[in-house]
Amino acid sequence: MRQSSLVVVANRLPIDDSVALDGACEWRRSPGGLVSALHPLLRHTPATWVGWAGGTGRAPALPDVDGVRMRAVPLSQDDLRDHYEGFANATLWPLYHDAVEQPQHHRRWWEGYQRVNQRFAEATAEVAEPSAVVWVQDYHLHLVPGMLRALRPDLRIGFFLHVPFPPPELFMQLPRRAELLRGMLGADLVGFQRAQAAHNFAQLVTKVLNLPATDRRIGIDDRVVRIGAFPVSIDTAEMAALAARPDVAARARRLRQDLGSPEHVLLSVDRMDYTKGIEQRLKAYSELLVSGHVKVRDTVLVQVAVPSRERVGQYQILRERVEREVGRINGEFGRVGEPAIHYLTQPFDRAELAALYRVADVMAVTPLRDGMNLVAKEYVAARVDDAGALLLSEFAGAAAELSDAYLVNPHDLEGLKQGLLAALHAAPADVTARMRAMRAHLHQHDIRAWARSYLSALDESGALVDRLTSAGDGGPALPSQPGRAGAPADRTRNP
Prior knowledge:
Layout: E1 4-12, H1 34-42, E2 47-52, E3 69-72, H2 77-96, H3 107-127, E4 128-137, H4 144-151, E5 156-160, H5 168-171, H6 177-184, E6 189-192, H7 195-209, E7 217-220, E8 223-229, H8 236-244, H9 246-258, E9 264-271, H10 278-291, E10 299-306, H11 313-333, E11 341-344, H12 350-359, E12 362-365, H13 374-382, E13 389-393, E14 406-408, H14 413-424, H15 428-444, H16 447-458, H17 463-470
Helix pairs in contact: 2-3, 3-4, 6-7, 8-13, 9-12, 10-11, 10-14
């Protein structure tokens, strides 16, 4: 069995769910941007991606994709219910997002979470060569670093959390809080989106495990675990090039005509999730229609809400509420051929999404809590015309970097309404100045900068990053100076 010097471990494999008749697989863009980050790098070193292929039962044997080996981890129906739908998405997900919905706790879910994490750790131990670098991803796999270190102490292990990490008073609610912390501390480097998350983690390690900790380092046994912030980003150049294509620009013009050529187009692109603030956004827009500050003939809202986790009860209820509210608003304020809200639930390919970004005068990204939110960054990258206003929640991780956006508190309905009006009626010079500043930031802090920053910090020798980048990928050059731990530095079909 071929072993790999770099192993990426994530809940899902980065490939399409189906394999073609000739056995070919293709890379699948992931909501968190992980595939976009690593695809151009992994082609230049022996690498394996360990993850779930999407079905239940025996794990399929999959071909390599661009030289990257795919190692599928099997999940049963019980695993899917207890690990993925249960502990990961009904316990951890709401807790990590400020308990917007009440987290649920069931002992059976915890047993399933342990079982699946152990299976991932064993699969990783099997494919990693001696002293390999292993990069474990996200909240589904908190226990894998500790389990993997017990199996393979020779490995260099990194863990990165793509979602927020909660303050101590929330995390302390977890019945298995100590076990999760110990699992993460199996890593040599624990990365977060924001410095506050690293601080929360250090506080909890001191409080729960009584270990010496700072916001940079934690001592455990005879090791030092480093922690820090590594804000994830997007392939800025790829999105800009796509948005600049003549066919995409033409599609944007046709979309505006199809919408009735309104004075203002307001766009939101979300997964159907209670953390995204969709209901609050709809309520604010409805009240602006009631007050007459927004008129249907002048302004149209396009709400893309791609279904997510449809077997989880909370998500089924949310979708029903959102669709009922959209129907009410359209019934009350829409006209024949002029709905107040264009509500879309189908996924979009990259070109169509870029066209939507180009047509939107205001992009409303107003989650109640988000680790980063790459939609905001994609919109900025797509505005090659330096136009378009970004309305951004203060509670999205992206707000720390895109401070020139029109920032709002989505919990404050009046403030959200005022923010929408400010973005809709902003002076063109102000819109352009803000957009240029945000675009300049993204060109310096793109997805390759993020990947190199994290991997350089994880593999201090620099040998891995040198191997990953020595062959080049034909895209923008990687930065010559890697970032450092502790320094400040979601997605297409499923936004």
